[in-house]
């Protein structure tokens, strides 16, 4: 198997993953700010890192996957001024802030479960790590990399760069240009420079969420939580950190500065960022009315949707684009993904039931064997090439073709060795289920129901009661299924 290549945002090129023999891979992904429901943009991000987690585990790594919950410190406008978003919502709804947090955290978990995302190893919260954030702020103050202003603590970008920092390297921003962009602002208030960012904010009298600190009652800044939690659970330096590309600046840039300032070294070996979603070629946004909540896709209850789409259809759709590529939502694209998912699902259902016949003498066809082996290797080559799931899926369809030929009898089992058949079966199921997270969408006791209906269908057909035969066919069709009259049996499948 080829070594895994990752497109490292920091170096802006693909690099061989260096932790090949490390006992533990540290993976940290910026989780949700729980003041709003999960939208498709961050669902794509979490899905991409779910696949990374699955694949690293599949190829033999032990992974500690940390995904935080931001439940304090994210201010309206994403800056250092204004109300905490959760506190603001708590006031509007006259609720305790943790009720808001609990509601949206539960929704977040439910949505991710619906789309078959695995839970992380650790899911820490900002409010659960106030002590660590205060201690890190004190650390940076002692090192001259932060300053107090009216009860708030700010990170000093100029001091950081004078001590050898490189603020802006991750996002490719030049410090002088950033200063020029902010020159026309009406002052900087408590800050020495408009680029400085809050580590700890003094709480105003009306601010709900507050904690005691050496500088008075306050609350942590948004950027500090990830630095403190990643350091606590993954150490001074860990392997992979990521999130949506919108977090690259300023959030991840600030994380690097805080960690290097506090702990004396770059915190992350590899930075990975997922690209944006568009809808019919336009940027997805609430103001354009083209943003979707995952549940709206499942129900079809949105003016831009022509129908409902199942969770696995949406997941399969996202897999057809590499995580760094822009992904465009449209009804045509989703319908194509629905058809593709059903073809893949039919193949998975069929291959799971296939067994290599006992006692046959195989005469392997070299061409068939070579094609299967090349497709198997291609599945891994795609994943090893910076998680290019689109390439992997293309090779899965090659394997699907062989599965369908075995299913219909156009490819005889004796044309494959048992070893080749087992490799085909194992790879197809494992890559789909364990790596890509694709599962069959079937209700409980579905097999018993379909077997009973197919038994009735067979009886009606033998009795030439074709009106009943048509009724059963129509029932299957209404559920997106079809009946297959095979040469020696009757079966069903997903309607493609």
Layout of strands and helices, then pairs:
Blueprint: E1 5-8, E2 13-16, E3 25-29, H1 40-58, E4 63-67, H2 85-93, H3 97-114, H4 130-142, E5 146-149, E6 152-155, H5 157-162, H6 175-181, E7 197-202, E8 218-220, H7 224-234, E9 238-244, H8 248-263, E10 268-274, E11 277-279, E12 282-283, H9 294-299, H10 311-319, E13 327-329, H11 331-353, H12 366-384, H13 389-408, H14 418-435, H15 446-462, H16 466-478, E14 481-485, E15 490-494
Helix pairs in contact: 2-3, 4-7, 7-8, 10-11, 11-13, 12-13, 12-14, 13-14, 15-16
How would you sum up this structure, described in words?
There is one protein chain. By secondary structure, the protein is an alpha/beta fold. The protein has helices at 40-58, 85-93, 97-114, 130-142, 157-162, 175-181, 224-234, 248-263, 294-299, 311-319, 331-353, 366-384, 389-408, 418-435, 446-462, 466-478, and strands at residues 5-8, 13-16, 25-29, 63-67, 146-149, 152-155, 197-202, 218-220, 238-244, 268-274, 277-279, 282-283, 327-329, 481-485, 490-494. The strands form five sheets. It has a four-stranded parallel sheet, sandwiched between helices. It has a four-stranded antiparallel sheet with strand order 5-6-7-8. A three-stranded mixed sheet has the order 12-11-13. α8 links the parallel β9 and β10. α2 (85-93) crosses α3 (97-114) and α15 packs antiparallel against α16. The model has no long low-confidence stretch (mean pLDDT 91).
């Amino acid at each position: 198997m080829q070594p895994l290549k990752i497109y490292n945002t920091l170096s802006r090129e693909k690099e061989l993953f260096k932790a090949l023999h490390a006992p533990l891979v540290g993976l940290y992904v910026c989780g949700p700010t729980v003041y709003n429901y999960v939208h498709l943009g961050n669902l794509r991000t979490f899905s991409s890192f779910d696949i990374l987690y699955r694949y690293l585990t599949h190829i033999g790594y032990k992974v500690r996957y940390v995904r935080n919950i931001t439940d304090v410190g994210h201010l309206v406008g994403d800056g250092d001024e204004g109300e905490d978003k959760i506190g603001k919502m708590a006031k509007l709804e006259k609720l305790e802030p943790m009720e808001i947090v609990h509601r949206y955290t539960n929704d977040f978990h439910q949505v991710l479960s619906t789309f078959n995302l695995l839970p992380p190893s650790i899911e820490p919260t900002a409010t659960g790590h106030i002590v660590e954030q205060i201690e890190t702020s004190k650390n940076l103050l002692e090192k001259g990399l932060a300053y107090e202003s009216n009860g708030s603590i700010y990170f000093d970008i100029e001091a950081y760069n004078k001590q050898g920092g490189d603020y802006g390297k991750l996002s490719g921003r030049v410090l002088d240009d950033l200063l020029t962009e902010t020159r026309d602002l009406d002052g900087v208030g408590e800050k020495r420079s408009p680029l400085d960012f809050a580590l700890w904010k003094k709480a105003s009298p009306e601010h709900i969420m507050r904690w005691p600190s050496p500088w008075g009652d306050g609350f942590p800044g948004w950027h500090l939580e990830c630095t403190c939690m990643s350091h606590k659970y993954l150490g001074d330096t860990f392997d992979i950190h990521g999130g949506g590309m919108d977090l690259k600046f300023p959030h991840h840039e600030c994380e690097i500065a805080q960690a290097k300032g506090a702990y004396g070294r770059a915190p992350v070996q590899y930075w990975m960022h997922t690209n944006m979603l568009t809808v019919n070629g336009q940027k997805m946004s609430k103001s354009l009315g083209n943003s979707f909540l995952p549940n709206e896709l499942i129900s079809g209850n949105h003016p831009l949707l022509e129908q409902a789409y199942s969770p696995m259809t949406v997941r399969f759709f996202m897999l057809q684009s590499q995580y760094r590529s822009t992904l465009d939502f449209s009804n045509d694209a989703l319908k194509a993904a629905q058809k593709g998912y059903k073809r893949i699902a039919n193949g998975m259902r069929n291959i799971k039931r296939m067994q290599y016949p006992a006692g046959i003498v195989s005469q392997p066809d070299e061409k068939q064997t070579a094609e299967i082996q090349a497709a198997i290797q291609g599945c891994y080559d795609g994943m090893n090439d910076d998680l290019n799931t689109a390439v992997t899926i293309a090779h899965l369809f090659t394997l699907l073709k062989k599965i369908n030929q075995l299913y219909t009898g156009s490819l005889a089992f004796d044309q494959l060795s048992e070893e080749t058949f087992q490799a085909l079966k194992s790879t197809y199921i494992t890559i789909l289920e364990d790596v890509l997270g694709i599962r069959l969408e079937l209700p409980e006791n579905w097999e018993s129901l379909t077997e009973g209906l197919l038994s009735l269908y067979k009886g009606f057909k033998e009795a030439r009661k074709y009106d009943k035969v048509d009724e059963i066919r129509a029932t299957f069709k209404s559920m997106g299924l079809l009946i297959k009259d095979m040469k020696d049996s009757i079966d069903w499948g997903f309607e493609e």
